[in-house]
Structure formats: structure tokens, C-alpha cells
Amino acid sequence: MEKAETESKNNAKRILERLEQGPARPKELENELHIAHSSVMYTIRDSELATSGVIFQFTDGKNAGKYGVKYALGQSTEEDEIKKSYELQRRKLHRNPTPSELAFLIKKTPSEAKDALFKFIPRYREPTEDEMASSAKTLFKMLIWSSLNLPSKKGFFEKRVTNVVVEGIDQETLDEILEQKPTISLDDAKKYIIEFPEMKPDISQVDESNKVIYKVKWSEEAKSALSAIDTWNDVAEIRIPKRYDDREDKFRFSGGSDYDEYYHAKELAEIYVPSQGIIDRLIEMIGLPHHQCEVLQVLKKFCQNALKVEQLNENNKEKIFLALSDFVFSKYFPDIHDYEKGSDEIKERNIAFDIIEMLDVRTKDGIDIAMGFVNSYLIGPENYEGPDIDKVVKWLAKDPDLRGKLEKKIEDLLKDPPYFMFAGHYRELLQNSLSVNGH
Predict the structure, then answer these.
(1) What's 78-127's CATH class?
(2) Angle 339-359/389-396 helices, nearest 10 degrees?
(3) Which pTM was predicted?
């Protein structure tokens, strides 16, 4: 019942907004707004809007038979004008307008506009600074998402673009667009631009070799609406990794000593997606004496680059996972009395697990290895000096079935007297790592 009532109110609002733009026949309203015939007829004949005379039918003249809105025909009262202008500005700004923002629409001074708002708008109050900033941020993102069409990072990579600059937006919004992770409703953004096309920014593009510059030009009206955050004046930039071709590298990746190759790989990892040769060689170099952490950091950086532009296939993901899992999930724990050795290996295992978590390979063999590792921890946490166990458990628990198995294992151990001494460890895992969404 509540859903039907909400839908009826939404339909009435859309019909009213359409009739404010000009008279229309029922069939026009059905076709333009995609609202069912019965809903249209109820709104224009039997709803409160119709019975109160706000929506009425023309009986003569060129509009005979059509429906219109009384205050849209110059027959409105001062109250009608204030309410109409208030609603328009409220939709445009996504919040209550200030008296100054309404004044120019109703052709009054800010002081007169303020008096009119308090007189004709029930429970009206002026927006706070926080409300203005919050609504401006939402509005800004809606305008950008509906106006700035960018290729994905993969798309830029395939076009050999390595530097993207956007003048007129903030870094957070550019990152969201390139990651395709909107923080607003795209449907709402599309509808907003249809209703207020004058707010849409103009976008121009300049191509410079491997660099693309987008310039977002905002209207004065848009700048005024967004003035609480001022992000329209920012410049955002993102670097796209380059494709690495072994044949084009005059220094070559292979052929030198392990350490020469490591240092060369470290330089390449700053800007390149790895070739197959680099991936294979780095896997071979895992365990390089005195350089284990460094090699893992380079591998991690290469993987991040490749994932950004979708250039790491499943075969390579599994190959990297298998190479790391033997080390990360080894039953061997470093000698806790040898502090330097133990702390180094813990650091190395955490870096290696970061890569595993990032690749998120979930083959049966890989999951079995990781589950076995966690089970070993559960029956002997006092000897544990491995990677962050919370992170490992959270990674496994993304799968509801595995989460259930781990929860049962811990609950069983909590009932077993020999394991009472570890109850604190177990409850912490249940609370922090196995709870759904952290609750």
C-alpha cells in the first residue's frame, strides 16, 4: 500500500511539472512520461490537485480538451508564485534555497523573499553551511557524471595515453569516474540534466602526443550553486601505465646479475605494465637473499599497474598466487627469539599476502592451502608470527561458505577446554574478521 501511494505521488509530481511547461492532452502525458492511462486520469480528474483546481481542463479556445495548471497561466496568486519558484530552486539546488537565491526568481529583494518564504512555505528554514556543502558536492558529482564521458583506464592504455588531465574537477571525482564507481545515482543525474540543461558544463578536449587534457567549463549559474565547495576550480590528473615490450628495451631485463635485474625491474615498475618475461623472472627472484622485501614490492607494483588497465590474465594471476602461497602460508614460523629474522619474514609475508589479496585468486587448491594455514593458527596461536591473520581470515570470509566453516571451527574450539587459553584470540577473530560487513 505504501509503495502504491509513493508511486502515485511521484506520478502526480511528474504530471504537474510537465503541465507547468504547457497544456497537454491525457495521451500526450501518457506517451511523454510513460505513465499508465489510469494513473494519468486519476491525477488530472480525481486527485487533490484536480479537485482543488490546480489542474484543470480547458473548455474552449485553441487548448480546448487539454489540461493545464492554473498558476502556469498567469492566473496564480502570490502564494502560487512563491511555492512554484521555491520548488524549482529546491530541485535545482538539492536543498532549501536561501532568500537571496530565490529573490531574483520572484523579483523581490532578499528581505522580501525571506518574508515570503516564511509566510508561504510551511516549516521553511534556511540551509546550514554543512547542508549547502553536502548538496553542492552531490550536485557537482551529478553534473560531472552526466557530462564527462571518459574511456576507462584500459581504454586510455590501449590508445597509448599515459597522462590524463581534467581541468575543472577534483581528484576524487576523476578517480571515481575512471574506476567506474559512482557515489551518486546515475539515473538521478540523467534526469537532473534533462530538467536543468542550463547547468550542464561544456567539455572540450585537447590531445597532446600521449597526453589528453579535458577542460570543463562551468556556467556562472553552476558556479554559484557549487560555490560552497569550489571544486569546479580544481585540476585533477592521473597517470596510465605504459606497455612494456622486452624487444624495445635496449638494456634488456634478463642477462645480467640478479641484483642488476632487480634494480632495472624496480625502475620499470614505476611506469610499466609487466611483460610475460618480467612476471616469470620476478617469480624466479622471489627469495633473493637480502632483497626479498624489495622483490615483492616490485612485483606488487607491477601487479597494481597491470590490474589498473586490465592487463593481467587469469593464468598469470594463478601463477603468481602459487609462487607466493608456499611462502605466505607455510607451516614454518620464524624463530621468535631471533627478532631480526622473525620481523623481516613477517614483513615479507604481509607484502606477499597483499599481492594475493589484490589478485583474489580463488582456485580450490589455493583456498585449501589458505584454509589449512588458518586452521594451523587456530590450534596454536601462541607460536604464530606470520602475516596479519585478521586480513587472511577476512579475505577467506568474503566467501559465505568459508566464513561459515571458520565460524564453526572457532565455536567448536571455544567449547574445548585445552583451547580456553586462546578464547581472546578466537573472539577477536569472530568480532573483527568474520562478522558480515564488520557488524
Answers:
(1) mainly alpha
(2) 20
(3) 0.68
